[in-house]
Amino acid sequence: MQPTVIINQHRNTAIIVGASGKKLLVIKLGKGKLTVTTISQQEINAQGYTVSDYSPALAAQSYLRHGAGVGEKAKKLLEKIAAGEFSDQLMFTSH
User: Fold this and answer.
1) CA triplet 14, 17, 20: central angle to 5 degrees?
2) How far is it, in rounded angstroms, from Cα 10 to Cα 52?
3) Residues in the chain with pLDDT < 50?
4) b/e map of 32-68 (b: 16 or more CB within 10 Å)?
């Protein structure tokens, strides 16, 4: 699965960084330290997120500069995405 930037009606953004079983691994931009959380497709839909065409690499670069810090696992994934080690092609489907 390719990294995918998602955004909701409140302009909250997140990057889907992978999948674990039926759940998605997501890094949400928020007030606190950025961490990787697990969320279902249904929860993403319920929170109003839709796929953005914003570059995952550019989003990852800005996330890495987050003022409250970035957790270790999130940092490793964001560095990979920012370095372009993933394709920018979206492989995300809504149900």
Assistant:
1) 120
2) 14
3) 87-95
4) eebbbeebebeebeeeebeebebebbebbeebeebee
**Cα gap 37→26, rounded to integer Å:** 5
Residue with tokens 């065409």: 53
Largest CA distance in the chain: 34
For residue 1, the model assigns a pLDDT of: 72
- Using a 10 angstrom Cβ sphere, with 0-12 exposed, 13-18 middle and 19 or more buried, the burial of residue 77 is buried
Q: Compute CA 62 distance to the chain's CA centroid, rounded to the nearest angstrom.
A: 12
Question: Rounded to 5 degrees, what are φ and ψ at 61?
Answer: -60, -40
Q: Please tell me the distance from the alpha carbon of residue 70 to that of residue 87, in angstroms, as a whole number.
A: 23
Prediction pTM value: 0.86
| Residue that has been written with the tokens 């920012």 in this structure | 82
Yes or no: say if 28 and 41 are a contact pair by the CB < 8 Å rule: no
